[in-house]
Amino acid sequence: MSSLAMQTPASPTVPATGPAQLPAVVPVYACEHGIDAEQLEAARIRLELLYGEVAADWPGFIARPGQYEMMQACLLTFLSAKSPEDEKRSGNHLAQLEAGTGTGKTVAYCLAALVAAEVLKKTVMVSTATVALQEQLIHKDLPRLSSIIPELTFDILKGRARYVCQSRMEGMIEGIVPGSELAGELQDLFADSRRPTASVVRDRQAAMRWFKSSAKKLNAGAWDGDIDSLAQSPNPQDWRQVQANAHACNGGQCEHFRNCAFFKARRQAAGATLQVVNHALVLATLQTDSSLIDAGNTLFVFDEAHHLPAIAAEQFPYRARLGASTRLLF
Ligand code: SF4
């Protein structure tokens, strides 16, 4: 696993020097950090080639010294990647890089990541803190890069809760439709003084209409089961009833497994060179859904890394009562 943490400094820095080649000390660095010299040379040549292609084909592209230096630093860090099975590598597999807005960080880390992924046969995961940056990557920067470099494929990786669970959706429809067993039970249940109010009944009917129309679209292939691809956001309460959920999922045992929206999206993302994700999902996955990310075979880039501490603090809170803890200690 190797990680890059990208940050934008408060006052942008502008490098004073021109584009630099990998410094002469690199072979020594490579040796010290367990990078194979031939692998490094092959990666360096490939990176130069890709950078040249981007410089030639990206409209209005300006080659910036800072971008070039960042790209080299990213490559060296990625090539020092260490996985749990690779204990021999003592490489410095974590880099914290800062660059001002407009330096071209995305191109720098994406090209380095693409080359390293090819050489090391690993997946690259680019994590962002904000939806704005994620949108910019998915809809602007990465399509433009991949139009120049077709080998660069990308996809977005979302948490389960963004996808519908077809099994739960069917359960909702079959369980509550008028005339069904559950509907009968519900009617009996409410046939006393706690009779549901008109607004509750109307809400249920609206929910049922939404479940049915969504199931129809899903079955007809007119909806991919991703909440974000719906023209209109569903009622949060309705969505909660049918969203995919690790605890309620039978995985391969489920009759919908092959066409399951979540597993389909996951398989599709796994085939991409670069997967875009967000910090909260990476951290949550490390805690719970560990199968979503193969950390030992992934090169991580944390863009907007300055948000990481706050998100980590939200993700891994631990509360202890001071009085009880003190009594335990003394
Ligand atoms: S595989 Fe899991 S998430 Fe997908 S439809 Fe089945 S139960 Fe739901």
Automatic annotation (TrEMBL):
Keywords, ordered alphabetically: ATP-binding, Helicase, Hydrolase, Nucleotide-binding, Plasmid
GO process terms (BP): DNA repair; SOS response
Ranges that cross the membrane: none
Superkingdom of the source species: Bacteria
GO MF annotations, alphabetized: 4 iron, 4 sulfur cluster binding; ATP binding; DNA helicase activity; DNA/RNA helicase activity; hydrolase activity
Coiled coil (residue ranges): none
Every Helicase ATP-binding domain range: 53-330
Xref: Gene3D superfamilies: P-loop containing nucleotide triphosphate hydrolases (3.40.50.300)
Record-linked PANTHER family: ATP-DEPENDENT DNA HELICASE DING, DNA REPAIR DEAD HELICASE RAD3/XP-D SUBFAMILY MEMBER
Name used for this protein in its record: Rad3-related DNA helicases-like protein
Native source organism of the sequence: Polaromonas naphthalenivorans (strain CJ2)
